[in-house]
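note to self: dont lose this again. the chain is below, predicted strucutre after it. 377 aa total, dont forget to put it in the shared folder this time
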Amino acid sequence: MANQNSKLTSLRSYLVPHLSRDTCLGFLAGGGFALTLSNCSLAVHGLNTLVEPVRKFVLARCVPRTLIICAALGFTVWARRFLLHSPRCFGSPLKILNVTENPSSFPSLIRSANVELAPRLTNEDIAQAVILRGSQDSHRKVVKVGSNMVAKLRLDPEAAEAESMTFIRNHTTIPVPRVLNTYEEEGYRYILMEFVEGELLEKIWGKLSSSERSVILNELKDYICQMRQIKCPNGTPIGSITGGPAIDRRQLDSAKDGPFKSEADFNEWQLAQLHEETPLSRRDLFAALHRTDHEIVFSHGDLAFHNIIVREGHIAAIIDWEYSGWYPEHWDYCKTRSFLSGTDELYDCCKRIFEKQYYSEYFMDEWFTREVRHGGF
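---
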């Protein structure tokens, strides 16, 4: 018992400095504990055998109205809204509970006795890194650090890409780079992830044989099916997986707002992106064509050949999850077909990787792209 109390005291001493001022931490009888935040409360039970399992500490990091908590053991939770999963990127039986009253960064404090996060990058690390996307002076770029790590930097503290990558690694067999660390520094969101060897599918597609293409398309179809089987929890808004904004990625640029409590609200926001000179007749037409009864599923948001890494004839990784989250079921179809357009061959690819075709939604979406401020035509 003395040993257990000592470990609980050490754990409490570690956690308290990282909690926000309006957060209260208290250990309950039997080794469980409760965390109370400003606008929601959470109780965790089932940690009464915390003596040996402290080998994987229970760690938490709180910011106002947001909580992420890890535990080595199974537990029962009560909270207003949450996502519960066990990311493989932190190895073995860790669980992450994300209370998404407001979006929060992926916690850089999550550790276990067996897993240590990659250290933060120094200015020298970044200066010596190999640029994979962007430029040295750009506000968003992807660089290779050393031989086995990639860093993604962007001016967006709300970015939930790391959470999406971890969520997908846990819930599917989709190959996703393992997240090594993520943090915010001087306004930039950093995601450190493992480097995946291979070539981008868009660069080698023309060199592949028909049978090689079929293997890749069949794998991609399976991965898309797995994503679409992840249904949005009741009450979860349309937007990022952490309860953050929705992002509409199009040819020219992207727009971000929300999250949205319904597809009707989401559609209304999209209509607000139309050019001011768009005639009222077309505005009414777009509004009428927007359905509001689609199922909301997990979507990548930018699923195209430039975000698929291939190695030895198979998909080694799907990357660039920054536009992912909970979206209407046609979302990925429209985005993917928009990038895979121009030839019958590419159109056939879309037919093969999506079990359901959303012809009317795609027709409207392409027309819509020509009229919105962040479109591309």
